[in-house]
Write a structure and sequence with these properties.
This protein has 234 residues and is mainly α. The protein has 14 helices and no strands. α7 runs parallel beside α9. The chain is globular. The termini are far apart.
Length: 234
């Protein structure tokens, strides 16, 4: 398996256009706006950021995101998706406290199996939420670390949770439309607009955790400012 350094060196100076032939080019384009380089993808989609992914899981499951199976082609970086998933398995093994050695070849095998089974249905954000939450929400074995269980529970439990949660969020949004003051559901775009109307500065938003982790983007801030200016003629 190639190292992250070698994978990054593969990346051309301009992004390839092959992704425009995907079934979801709008999603790919939106994701590239947030993560324009493979270096930024490697920098965010690591076990170090599991807590952020878990904290904002409700937002991330509906945020535009490419599938693991699309990563290599979108970024013209062969082996990038494999490297990311290997990192997730290695992170789980470390978190488990298992004293058994987790050989790199074993991690690569597990990652390849995960990509083969779920690469077409697992987004990069899904991988962060699932692996980060696995020990608490999805683990079904008493073993400290069981790669087979990790492989099974994404399909058995996580995808079921995601479908249910997205359905619940849709119901909450529908209720919010009917009774705007009776729901806690709020989108990142609405949050930015709310902050600006309350007097918070754009700079303070940029310095915040949500902006750093790209839950809130520069485009959202600009759109909220434009909306605020349009609504206030003075």
């Amino acid at each position: 398996m190639e190292t992250i350094g070698k994978i990054i060196q593969q990346q051309p100076t301009t992004q390839p256009s092959s992704w425009k032939n995907f079934e979801n080019p709008q999603i790919v384009e939106a994701f590239l706006a947030d993560f324009p380089t493979i270096e930024q993808v490697f920098g965010f989609f690591t076990p170090d950021n599991w807590p952020t992914a878990i904290k904002y899981a409700d937002l991330l499951i509906t945020r535009p995101c490419i599938m693991l199976a699309q990563v290599d082609e979108v970024y013209h970086a062969d082996g990038a998706a494999l490297q990311i998933v290997v990192g997730q398995f290695v992170g789980l093994h470390k978190l488990s406290g298992s004293r058994n050695e987790y050989h790199p070849k074993s991690a690569e095998f597990s990652a390849n199996m995960f990509l083969a089974k779920y690469g077409e249905v697992c987004t990069l954000f899904d991988s962060m939420i699932y692996f980060g939450n696995y020990p608490i929400e999805y683990k079904t074995t008493y073993a400290q670390f069981d790669a087979q269980d990790v492989l099974q529970q994404f399909g058995n439990k996580y995808l079921f949770w995601k479908r249910n949660r997205k359905s619940q969020r849709q119901e909450e949004e529908n209720e919010q439309t009917q009774q705007p003051t009776g729901s806690d559901a709020i989108t990142p775009e609405e949050l930015v607009f709310l902050w600006l109307t309350e007097g918070r500065t754009e700079e303070s938003i940029r310095n915040g955790d949500l902006y750093f982790h790209k839950i809130i983007t520069e485009k959202m801030i600009k759109n909220a400012r434009k909306q605020l200016t349009t609504n206030n003629p003075f």
